[in-house]
Specification:
Largest sheet: 7 strands, mixed
CATH topology of the largest domain: Metallo-beta-lactamase, Chain A
Bound molecules: MU-OXO-diiron
Oligomer: single chain
Helix content: 25-40%
Number of strands: 21
Number of domains: 2
Strand content: 15-25%
Structural class: alpha/beta
CATH architecture of the largest domain: 4-Layer Sandwich
CATH superfamily of the largest domain: Ribonuclease Z/Hydroxyacylglutathione hydrolase-like
Distance between the termini: 75 Å
CATH class of the largest domain: Alpha Beta
Strand order of the largest sheet: 1-2-7-8-9-10-11
Number of helices: 12
Shape: elongated
Amino acid sequence: MSAFALENTEGKPVAVALSERVHWVGAFDPDLRTFDIILKTANGTSYNAYVVRGNAGVAIIDTVKEEFADEFFARLESIADYSEITVIVLNHLEPDHTGALPELMKRAPQAQLYISQKAQSMLKGLLKQDEISFIPVLTGDTVSLGDRSLYFLHTPYLHWPDTQCTYVPEEKTLFSGDVFGCHFCDKRLFNNETGDFRFSFEYYYAHIMRPFKEYVLRALELIEPLPLKLIAPTHGPILRDRPERYIQRYRQLSSPGLHSELSPNQKTLLIFYISSYGNTRRMAEAIYKGAMQVQDVRVSLYDLEGGEVSPFVDLIEDADGLILGTPTINGDAPKPIWDLLSSLTVVNLKSKLGGVFGSYGWTGEGVRLVEDRLRGLKLRVPIPGLRVKLIPTVDEIMECEAFGLELAQELMGLRENKIINFADLA
Ligand code: FEO
């Protein structure tokens, strides 16, 4: 059993000490099964909020989802009077952390609100008030509570553009917002006492942080030098046992994988296709052949019918270029193509090279639809999609080879605005 109580003898929620001066005043949501429409959780989540007490002020760091405000206020009242609160910090404005803010501002009107620079417009949208008093902060800004202080770290996109972390050097404690969090509800609260939450930690990273790996790496540059005794995220276990392990894991998960195996001048081009009668497959093989003519392009060819989506997403995340081959069935690309494309929202595809091709029988909309989707995912699609009606002829196969060659040249910065001589490809 844990050494702390979550309720007093009357059954009222109380604060939990992380140290003499830092308390947890969050709430448990064990019945939640889906978060933000897309994230699953098998045992709910927690909304973690904290109180830091200095000898010249008290800070509240984050709040909870609105439905859990009563639990938050009960815990807060067990450790501080509203009149003592001098500072409210919002590390992230998503409603699961700001639901109790309007009421907190009413109960502690003297408290000064601190948010990140990028949170300003969001705060106005959230509170729907014309006059809101707040102080925007950036990395390096500090607030004194007397013998405790708050040091802000700007960590945008983790998980929204507004996000920041708050560090208390005198406690060696990082209030990390969603960073290092997970949807895992366990009243034992601390990572050395809860059940095994590794799956939730990895799952949370994969869905929330993975699209923003470059921002994770920038945040780690700020976090890694800090002396740390404890990481206090807004969801899931509080990381007091070897918190550095979670920082190291974020670095591993955010560091490029495939590129470490490539020589510096190599680039990767992936071709995926699905084919009903072998025609789109013939096009794919010809495009593959054309692309392989360009030195230092590492080309791979995959039939979507023969693989699971998840490892393909991993490959695409690390690749420099992506070419998709799709037939058209009933005026659309078939489901395996859309399954792959819808799974790509968890990775950053910005500025990767894209291309689309496919054989069709009647109208051939599939290629154009997939092209539009690639552009929507922020890939560069510099060459119009290549379509062939039913069985490709010898000339059309050569056109496919030229298409592959051009895309590979584009990838290497070698493409010129020239007319391809098909005889060169024979
Ligand atoms: Fe826990 Fe992004 O809110």
